[in-house]
Specification:
This protein is of the alpha/beta class. It folds into two domains: 163 residues, Rossmann fold; 142 residues, Rossmann fold (3-Layer(aba) Sandwich). It contains eight helices and 14 strands. A seven-stranded mixed beta sheet has the order 10-9-8-11-12-13-14, with helices on both faces. Helix 6 links the parallel strand 11 and strand 12. Helix 2 packs parallel to helix 3.
Length: 313
């Protein structure tokens, strides 16, 4: 007997979850979240989930702690309601940047979060463009890490073409991502920003490794937070002779006044996805593409036990 497919959403990105369900042609599961006066959260599942194949869509974005706690509570509620299999579908995995010890006496919070999700009762995790691939090893359950590239690439090729384009990694850690994009754009050249940080979200200096003179430069990264790195990278590339600079970042964290700073910068366009909801994200220089159909296809294949490896490419 086939397990019924059910999709529920936390409060982080209900519009995204609704879009996923519309693509799958199923209703969004009924769930009621209640927040008490002291900030405690309680949830009640409104549908029968016994024996079901259940997916919980929740990005752990701002406010990160509330969204994470809500995810854990929903997973626990589903487990105690005898769900057959629970998949935590986390389009944006918060705390991913705290994935190693960079100095003494600091936590590896990404590992802690992975342990919490597993302990709560999740049987597998579905996410997108993790900050570092090794985060998948933090889990003792299966992890499917999708890439937004199948959604981003047609847009980039249609708008920027494949001639006279250089893919730029904003740091050494992003070279693999830049190379992947460059390969899909006719083996376009790549350049790397040599970035020296003075502290968290503070960049002291930048240099460009590679020839960008006369090129349209596309900076590719997994996320844009304060926008400071992107703006300074764009200024540096233009100083080195780049004809135009655009950016392509999967997760639009956009903390504080990042949107205004980006719109006021010399960057011509910032392409992001809808893994994180942002009121007023689109418009100005910011273009938002939806990855909900990609998540819907991944959910369909996981539910039917089909291979989803092609979605990683």
């Amino acid at each position: 007997m086939t397990r019924p497919l059910l999709v529920f959403s936390g409060r982080s990105n209900p519009a995204f979850a609704k879009s996923v369900c519309d693509t799958l042609a199923i209703p969004l599961g009924a769930i009621e979240s209640t927040q008490f006066a002291d900030g405690e959260l309680s949830v009640e599942i409104g549908d029968n989930v016994r024996g079901g194949d259940v997916f919980v869509i929740q990005s752990t974005c701002t406010p990160s702690n509330d969204r994470l706690m809500e995810l854990l509570i929903i997973v626990d509620a589903l487990k105690r309601s005898s769900a057959g299999r629970i998949t935590a579908a986390i389009p944006y995995f918060g705390y991913a940047r705290q994935d190693r010890k960079v100095k003494p006496r600091v936590p590896i919070t990404a590992k802690l979060v992975a342990d919490m999700i597993t302990t709560a009762g999740a049987d597998r995790v579905l996410t997108m463009d993790l900050h570092a691939g090794q985060l998948m090893g933090f889990f003792n359950i299966p992890v499917d890490n999708l890439f937004a590239l199948p959604v981003l690439m047609p847009f980039l090729i249609n708008k920027y073409g494949t001639e006279g384009v250089t893919l730029v990694a904003p740091d050494v850690g992003g070279v693999e991502r830049a190379r992947l994009f460059a390969t899909r754009m006719g083996n376009a050249p790549i350049a790397v920003i040599d970035k020296r940080r003075a502290g968290p979200n503070m960049v002291a200096s930048m240099n460009v490794v590679g020839d960008v003179e006369g090129q349209v430069c596309l900076i590719v990264d997994d996320m844009v937070d304060t926008g400071g790195t992107l703006i300074k990278a764009a200024d540096t590339l233009l100083e080195k002779g780049a004809k135009r600079v655009a950016a392509c970042c999967v997760h639009a964290v956009l903390s504080g006044d990042a949107r205004k700073k980006l719109n006021d910068s010399k960057i011509s366009e910032v392409i992001v996805t809808d893994t994180i909801p942002q009121e007023g994200t689109s418009g100005g220089k910011i273009t938002t593409l939806s990855v909900a159909p990609l998540f819907a296809e991944a959910i369909r294949r996981i539910h039917s036990d089909d291979s989803i490896s092609s979605l990683f490419r």
